Amino acid sequence: MESEPAALPDDALAEVLRRLAPHVLAVARRVCTAWRDAVDDRLCGSLLPRSVRGIFINFPGDYFSEFFSRTSTGPAIDGGIDFLPCLCMGVKVKDHCEGLWLCRESSDRALPRPREYVVNPATRRWASLPKRPRPHMPGFNHTAHLAFEPAVSPHYQVFLIPRVPWRLPADGESDDDDDNPSLESEWPPASYPIHVFSSVTQRWDETTFLREGEAAGIVANMVSYPWYDECRYYGVYWQRTLYIQTKNCYLTRMSLSDHTYRVIKLPGANELIGYPNNHHLGRSSRGVYCAILDVLNRLQVWYLSESCGRIEWVLKHHTRLKTFEYVDYAQQLGRQ
Fold first, then answer.
1. What pTM was estimated for this model as a whole?
2. Which of 93, 258, 324, 328 is most enclosed, with most CB atoms within 10 A?
């Protein structure tokens, strides 16, 4: 590919670009500034007309995700997912990656195994996932995470990550947790079998990840926080790597290139009050970040540096936030 787009009339170049697959267009935009401008200028209003400008919030006790956005001068997606089937049962956005959403039914009338969907809000197209396979370990559950890189492939994957419940049943009929031998097992294990759904095969397959370095601890250390429910398991995908927040202030870094993983201690555990409740993973163009907000409204933003063979957290911001008074929160929120 040349350093500059071909010298064609605008309508002819637009027609050529329109015939390319989306992931090829994404690669073309990264060649140089001229190619990026050519793709954006000629396809504006056709292939790439809208974007999601806002955030989803899942409130406890609410069966739908609430979408918040600011008024925009350009075309934008309204955040509605009313085109999905069975919305009477409630659907929440559970994960997202590069414009795709992972949605799941959520209500007191939902099926024992709620249905899940991968949704493209720009095209309003969706695909229903097959039922999740059962966890390898009795009593455990899963959290699901999307992996999608349109510049590389138009296909996506969904990873089911085993989640230690807040309390494991004892071995046999006894209620004594000490009777369960699995409590003394390493967690995560040295060999980590993961169920993976691929949009290519349209089925769940099993992939084993091998641990590099030490485990976070033992299973018994991971079941002590009953408040640490599924919504605390944030995850982000960046450069063929899945980063998942887990219990006891750890991050699991899973490489999809060589099927290895390692656990990394999250930052700031001893510096902010109420830390385990208030850390959140995110991603930018540079990589993975972790934001921490404690009960005194102090905010820290850390960046995960992965250069020169070293992985370490670097503090980027430290400030104090001004927030609503708790007793007048609803009234003040209504006036904003």
1. 0.75
2. 93
